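My main concern about presentation is that the manuscript never shows what a single data entry looks like. For the editor and my fellow referees, an illustration may be useful. For illustration, here is how one protein appears when written out as sequence plus structure tokens:

***
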Amino acid sequence: MLNWRYNFCLATLILMVVGAKDVFPTSAFVAVRVAIQNDQSAAKPEAVLNASQQAQEVTPLQPGQSIKRELAGGHSHAYQISLSSNQFLHVIIRQHELNVATDLFGPDGKQLGEVNSLNDLLGEEHIFLIATAPGVYRLDVKTVMQGAKNGRYEIKIAELRNSTPQDLKLVAGQQSFAEAQQLRRQASCSEPQK
């Protein structure tokens, strides 16, 4: 049985979706799952990254630019974007026969979250962010399954602008949904098998 915290987070999400429905369609909220890192998590310094991550080429992501790439299982592609404080960013990743997840890092190198929608090989990943500090943010697109066969994806900036009060609701809704998904996974893992 799911616990009350999951239901509370889901109810909070629904209320936030209703408040932000004029900004983005409700389906954008339903498709997104973000693994939120708590404030006690340590920043991942660049010196600790493994050799393949250090050697990885970082591609700048620009407004109005769409990048189509192929990705093999167990590999990732890194993208960077410069943001000013209080800017709103909406990135869309279209999956083509490939299930991807995206790690989001702040200018300090600290992981802000992971986005992995409930769809599999087709569909979109939506990343929403309001920059809390100016600097270069990084998105790492990776395959969900290590042994996945090669597939394609397309990444683009859907919106980049100054944030509004509605955007705060949108990001809070995404975070509530992520917390609900995390609680759901914890509850299903802790339930005894029948």
Remarks:
- Residues 5 and 133 are 31 Å apart (CA to CA).
- Residues 1-54 have pLDDT under 50 and may be disordered.
- Helices lie at 4-19, 26-30, 51-55, 165-190.
- The first helix runs from residue 4 to 19.
